[in-house]
């Protein structure tokens, strides 16, 4: 509908031409592809500080118990690449990287059973529990998190006393 030319041509009995109240819309659709590659690498070192106790359980057997505080210096390297390809368009690539160092902290507990083969040589086995805080790093709106959390691991080995 075309509106009337100026000046307006309405009457006292009612309006002139009216615009429709049913709008017509056109919605286009487009597709895009997003490919993301994230890489988190680093090193974590543990320093344990705490008491140690050993009880003889017989001629050849002994029980070792320890627990205390853990300091864990950590270095993390985080890299990401995002490639967005709009439908029918050229790809757009975004990259980012960061490297950070932080000292994590927590607690540990350890229990080992020791069997003496000779006066100097022995075998041991047991378990250790460790809890550490998390490490989080952010770059260009991307966040990577190392959840060190709670860890339980077995320990087995040979011991030589001198």
Can you describe this structure?
The chain is mostly beta strands and 162 residues long. The chain has one domain (32-160). The protein contains no helices and nine strands. It has strands at residues 32-44, 47-49, 52-56, 61-86, 92-116, 121-132, 135-139, 142-146, 150-160. Strands 1, 2, 3, 4, 5, 6 and 9 form a seven-stranded antiparallel sheet that branches. Strand 3 (52-56) and strand 4 form a beta hairpin. The radius of gyration is 35 Å and the shape is rod-shaped. The N and C termini lie far apart (103 Å). The mean pLDDT is 86.
Q: What fraction of residues sit in β-strands?
A: over 45%
Count up the helices.
Answer: 0
Mean pLDDT: 86
- How far is the first residue's CA from the last residue's CA? 103 Å
Radius of gyration: 35 Å
Q: Uncertain segments of ≥5 residues (pLDDT<50)?
A: none
What overall form do the CA principal axes indicate? rod-shaped
The total of beta strands comes to 9
Q: Domain count, please report it.
A: 1
What does the main sheet amount to? 7 strands, antiparallel
The computed structural class is: mainly beta
Order of helices and strands: EEEEEEEEE
- Report helical residue fraction: under 10%
Short key terms for the protein model shown above:
7-stranded antiparallel sheet, 162 residues, 65% strand, two-stranded antiparallel ribbon, mainly beta, 9 strands, 0% helix
